[in-house]
Amino acid sequence: MSTDETGQGGPAAPNSARHPHGQGRDLVQLVTPSGERISHPEFDYWVRDVTDEQLCFLYEDMTVIRRIDVEATALQRQGELGLWPPLLGQEAAQIGSGRALRTDDFVFSSYRENGVAYCRGVDLTDILRVWRGTASSGWDPYTINMATPQIIIGAQTLHATGYAMGIQNDGADSVAVTYFGDGATSEGDVNEAMVFAASFQVPVVFFCTNNHWAISEPVRLQSHIQLADRAAGFGIPSLRVDGNDVLAVMAATRVALDRARRGGGPTFIEAVSYRMGPHTTADDPTRYRDANELEDWAARDPITRIAALLERKGLLTEELQQQVKDKADAVAREMRAGCTTMPDPEPLDVFRNVYSTPNSWLDRQQDHYARYLATFGDPAGAVAEEGAR
To answer: Which of 130, 137, 93, 100 has its CA nearest to residue 115?
Structure first.
């Protein structure tokens, strides 16, 4: 279900993607909260290849990443992780976009896109390394074409735009995709990235998950217009999509990817969703969020929606539900086992991978630290000190 299977040779991007102006646009939606498949004259084309079997896989993906999220939250509560950023409620935005990408596209994400990382094939244990505190980076970005999560809000948009400029210079048709939340749109880095992307018309997709809360600040406070309409100020076409509708998200992402591959430059996607859980496990959303709001959005749950669609099509069998549950449980077991058996780093590992090539400045620090450890009878320090001699 990648863009290259449907995007090349397709129709021109929908009007909402071609024209940067226009206020108060409706959400692009292909599946209602009750699971009804509705026709859309512009976006149906972009998901025309999604078979019933692939719908079942999307349902499985979303269920699995929710199970990953629940398990990681439990691991944090049990003291196995220092922190965890839940994605509860945002499964459709991550799976719909993640499954639209080609393997040669490169992803630059925030710290919440663990569902996208799952789509890219990340090792489950690698997702947890940073949050357990055993590594400063979870995985090798070039093995899955996804940068490690960025903690600094919005900084990944600059990285994506720079990478897209490299793609453009190489003459390739891959795309850089960057994910960020609604709060990040108020950061200077995001705005600067969009300036450069528009100026040089580089192949980058800005994927904003509007989950309505930047920690404790509501989106209505930070923006008095729809976030998608902010892109018009940079001359970047935008799409506003129902972020709890996995098919609509996939269609919108494919439109943006196709546009970038054809040399049409950047696109801004606002996926309107909701953060059902806390900002991180260190947050208590009940202190600033109305319980009625949470209840309203729970009725638009993305997994319930696709399950309702499958039920309408006669696909939500007991066999399928058991198969999906078994897969989710197996993934959770694998992740928990990887977390609890993860070895602690050696003290001198702090000096590893700081620079791509050795340098005397770092070597000197390592030698001093090794000598310090040796004074406590630390075997690692003693060995390193002997090696230095």
So the answer is: 93
Query: Active site residue: 288, 333, 355, 368, which one?
Result: 288
Widest distance between CA atoms in the chain: 73
User: Distance (Å, rounded) from C-alpha 191 to C-alpha 155?
Assistant: 10
- pLDDT bucket at 15, cuts 50 / 70 / 90: very low
User: Which one of 99, 212, 240, 275 is the catalytic residue?
Assistant: 275
In our burial notation (b when 16+ CB lie closer than 10 A, e otherwise), range 328-346 reads: beebbeebbebbeebeeee
How many Å apart are CA 386 and CA 135, to the nearest integer? 26
**Helix, strand, or coil here: 242?**
strand
| Per-residue model confidence as pLDDT tens digits over 336-377 | 999 999 999 889 988 888 888 889 999 999 999 999 999 988
Q: Which residues of 218-252 are buried (b: 16+ CB within 10 A; e: fewer)?
A: ebeeebeebbbbbbbebbbbbbbbbbbbbbbbbbb
Domains and CATH numbers, the chain: 3-340 (3.40.50.970), 349-388 (no CATH)
- 320-323 long-range contacts, Cβ below 8 Å, gap at least 24? 320/56, 320/59, 323/60
The active-site residue out of 67, 129, 279, 300 is 279
Interval 241-293: pLDDT, tens: 999 999 999 999 999 999 999 999 999 999 999 999 999 999 999 999 999 99
d(CA 256, CA 268): 8
- The rounded mean pLDDT for the chain is 91
